[in-house]
Amino acid sequence: MKIATYNVNGVNGRLPVLLRWLKESAPDVVCLQELKAPQEKFPLQAITDAGYNAIWYGQKSWNGVAILAKGMEIHETRRGLPGDPEDLHSRYIEAAINGMVIGCLYLPNGNPAPGPKFDYKLAWFKRLTAYSSKLLKKDIPVILTGDFNVIPTEQDAKKPENWVRDALFFPESRDAYKKLVAKGWTDALRKLYPDEKIYTFWDYFRNAFARDSGIRIDHFLLSHHFDKRLVAGGVDREVRSWEKTSDHAPVWIEVKDR
DNA sequence: ATGCCGTGGAAACCACGA
């Protein structure tokens, strides 16, 4: 089963690119972030016509997450991250699909840092870490994936020195990611390619993609149930070169069915 | 490298992103 994550940066503006990628890459499950569309403006018809069921958690202008599944039922298990009833951002949605739980997340960016937005990022991280422990305790196969807005290590940036004053690479952000993973998760792409440079995002400006000046911020965290089930993974880099594309590229893994 | 580009929504510019 192929599972992908893709920060589309506007699901409606990105629809031609999204549909082309769905057709060419044919993932079984897709987690989308940054829909930038209210609940009623999700392009359900086009997604359905492409062969996918969908659940989504929209929001006007910003954020927004969705889970798509091809020919499989989606049982929604949660929308919104627990731990702060005043947090109304659409940044988390979760579903049971084909015997596993898949959490789709869009972690706050946190810039400018320091400041209230950075505080929100760290608070969100804490809530995610606490909740992730509860997921692991259920002892069922779980995947947490999406845009974590964290560059985990220097290996994950072409030019780490460019990011030292950025919330994505602040020590607090990296520590938070480390603490989350330490709860018992496996960073799937890093496990598959321990020594490679892997990027999932390239800025729109400064010709970043042509220079391959990228960062790795879209991740797959797997529960131990996948230790012997993870067979492949990668980044669909070519999508980043298409017309009217997102600044992120889709990332995917392939897991064996039990 | 201080958003240089891109998206969405409101207003003919602004907020936000990473």
CATH fold category name? Deoxyribonuclease I, Chain A
Question: Whole-Å distance between the termini?
Answer: 10 Å
CATH class bucket: Alpha Beta
Write down how many β-strands occur, each being a DSSP E stretch of 2 or more residues. 14
Strand content: 25-35%
In terms of structural class, how would the helical and strand content be classed?
A: alpha+beta
Based on Cα principal axes, name the global outline: globular
Q: State the domain count.
A: 1
The biggest beta sheet reads:
6 strands, mixed
Mean of all residue-level pLDDT scores: 97
Strand order of the largest sheet: 3-4-2-1-14-13
Amount of helix: 10-25%
The poorly predicted ranges are none
Annotated CATH homologous superfamily: Endonuclease/exonuclease/phosphatase
Give the SSE string.
EHEHEEEEEHEHEHEEEEE
Shape-level CATH architecture: 4-Layer Sandwich
Q: How large is the radius of gyration? A: 17 Å
Number of helices: 5
List keywords for this structure.
258 residues, Deoxyribonuclease I, Chain A, six-stranded mixed sheet, 5 helices, 14 strands, DNA-binding
